[in-house]
Amino acid sequence: MFAERRLRAALTALALSGLALTTLQGTAGAADAPTAPAPAKSSPVAGIEDTTARAFARTLAEPAWRKQVAAATLAGEDVDLLALTATSRTSSVRGLRSTLAGAETDVARARGLGREAPPLLRVSLAGPSASAAHLARTAPLVASAPSEDAEVVVAYDSAGRAHELDAAKAPDRPVYVVGVDGQTALDAGLKVIDKELAARGLTSPGINTSASASGFWTTRIKSISVADVKEPWFKGDAEMFGLVTGFGTDGKVRVDTVTMPYIDDEGTTYSPGQILVNWSNYKYNLADVVLMEDDGDTNYSSLAKALAAVLLTIADQGAYIPLVDAIIDAMPTSWWTDDPDYVDAFYTLARETTGTRTGASANARMTVERYFVSEL
Questions:
Q1: Which of 148, 186, 216, 311 could form a disulfide with 232 if both were Cys (CB 3.0 to 4.6 A apart)?
Q2: How far apart are CA 147 and CA 65, in angstroms?
Q3: What one-character DSSP code corresponds to residue 281?
Q4: Residue 350 phi, psi dihedral angles, 5° rounding
C-alpha cells in the first residue's frame, strides 16, 4: 500500500532479501512464458499490483527507460507510474502505458472509487542507497507490496522471471516496489462515503439552535497517539480515518468522515490541532468517534452502503444512543482481513469534554479541547 512521503522508508524495511533470491523457473530462454508463483495476497487489488509489477519489470530491459526510471525514483519517494510512462517513446513503454490505463480502471473499480478516481499506481525504490548510474546499469527486481501475513515476496526481473524473496530480511540490493497510493485512495474513498451518506440523508445539513449566530463550537484534537495502528510494519505508514457519529439536527443518524493523514506510526504523539466534531451539526450534546485504518483493499462504495443500511434503521428516541456498536456491526467479517481495521472508539464526547481520554479498547489516547470557530 502506498502513501505519500513514505514508500522509500517503509519499503526499505520491507522484508525483501536480495541475497536470498530463489529463481522459481527455468533459464532466460524460457522467460517468454514464465510460470509465476501466486502473489502473496489474493485480493483483487493485490492481483492488479502483481500483474503491473511483472509488466513494469519487463520494460526495464530497455537502457534508456531504465535510466529514466532510476532518475525519477531517486528524485521522489513514490512516482506516478502512468505519468512516468507518458514521457517515454519506446514501444515497450507505450505497451506498459496501455496496461497501466487498464490497471488504473480496475483498481478504481475494486476500491469503489468510480470513474473520477485519480491515478493510484505508484513505484518506489527500496533497498540500500544506489546511484543513478548503478540503477541504469543493472535493472533492479520489481515486486508488489505483500499482505501483512506474507512469508515471501514475489519479484520479477527484466526477463519476466519470478523470484521468491526472503520476507525476514531487508533488501541488500535495489528493488522497485509497485503499489497503490493509500493516502490518495483514502482521500478519494472518503469523498465516496460522504456522497453516499449524504444521498441517504445521513449527513444532511441543518441549523442547531445551540449554534451562535457568530460562529459555532467544536471539539478540537490537541494531541493523539495510537499504540497499534493496525498496519503491518512492512506496509509503512497507516492510512487512518475517523467516523464521527451522532444524531443530526433533523433527528436522523449523522456520520461525518475525518481523515487523519498525519498519523503514520504507532507509539508517536501527534499534535494536529484538527477539528473533530462540529457541534452545530448535532441535535444532542454527545457524539461518538470510531477510528479505523485502511489496509488497502477497501471498497468504499460498499462500505458506505453497509453503513447506511445499518444506521438508517436507528431512530431518534428522544435521547442520545451510542452508535459505535452499530458501525462495527455494519462491517462484513471479510473486511477485517487486509481491509478497514477497527483501531479504537471514543464514546460520548460532549461539547464540554476537555483533557485526555483513552479509547474504549485502550489502543488510542486523545487530548481534546473546546474550540469556538467564529465567523469572519
A1: 148
A2: 29
A3: G
A4: -110, 165
Three-state DSSP state, 74: helix
Q: Give burial (CB, 10 Å; 0-12/13-18/19+) of 348.
A: middle
Radius of gyration of the chain (CA): 23
Residue 138, pLDDT score: 83
CA 363 to chain centre: 20
CA atoms within 13 A on the CB side of 355: 4
Mean pLDDT by 10 residues, the chain (376 residues): 36 35 34 39 81 94 91 88 88 88 93 88 84 84 76 88 78 85 88 87 57 81 86 59 91 90 88 95 92 78 84 82 82 52 90 95 95 88
Which residues lie closer than 8 Å to 54 by C-beta, 6 or more apart?
Answer: 36, 142, 156, 160, 162
C-alpha cell at 252: 436522523
How far apart, in whole angstroms, are the C-alpha atoms of residue 302 and residue 229? 23
Tell me how many degrees the CA angle 148-149-150 measures, rounded to the nearest 5: 95
Nearest to 370 by CA among 356, 352, 357: 352
Angle, in degrees to the nearest 10, between helices 300-311 and 182-199: 40
